[in-house]
Amino acid sequence: MTGVRHRATRVSSYGDLASPEVPAALDGATLVWPIGGLEQHGPHLPLSVDFDIPDALARQLAADVGGVLLPGQPLSARSLPQSGGGSHFPGTVHIDGATFIDYLTQTLRSLGRLAPARLVVVNGHYENEALLFEAIDGCDPARTFPGTEVLAFSWWSLVEEDWLRAHAPEFPGWHAEHAALTETSLMMYLRPELVRAVRVDHPTPPAAGVYRHPVDVDRMSSQGVLSATTGSSAELGEQLFWHVMDGIHRTLSSKQR
Fold this sequence. Notes:
Elements (H helix, E strand, L loop, with lengths): L11 E2 L8 H5 L3 E6 L13 H17 L2 E2 L11 H4 L12 H16 L5 E6 L5 H10 L2 H4 L4 E6 L6 H7 L13 H10 L26 H4 L13 H20 L4
Helix pairs in contact: 2-8, 4-5, 8-10
């Protein structure tokens, strides 16, 4: 990396506002909402991975643009065997898809009444993505957010192919990059005190878009890890974090044609 970049330590938090302060604080402002999950991430990572990563990105974005950070949504849609290990490992907490969509839809309608200039939703749980997009589209954004630009994405969607070729040449696909190289590296950078010393590789990542019953747990993963952790480091996590942040800013600055 060239130069040293430091993560933000101070950010305006929506929950710290008093009620009369809300209109002025959100007038022309960017409201940032991280959503994630509590899901097993093998023997070496905490359950909070899918929340910690989007929360850190959302916090940095709010600081960068002078925005306001919403409290994060910690629970997620169901973990699936081919993308999160499923319910075969202890610790995962989820809500069903219909409830998750309804929860997001009701929350989005409430956020629409706040009328920020921009709402940015940062997702960190693979199985959330389609349901999040459905909730936004289904709440009739033209009516719910008439004066608000809405941008929602999963953080991995902003990782460029060139970066992957350079740093993860045996990349298995994002569905199988669970508790593996990128998440392990990001957590080593963001919350190193929670990363255990054990490292597990899984030699046969599951195929994308294939669901099989009954599940062969040992073939699907190694202790909940779906691909390889080999090569993970805090340095790689730092590079990836700022690569994604640069992608967020490019996406925010680009205009639809």
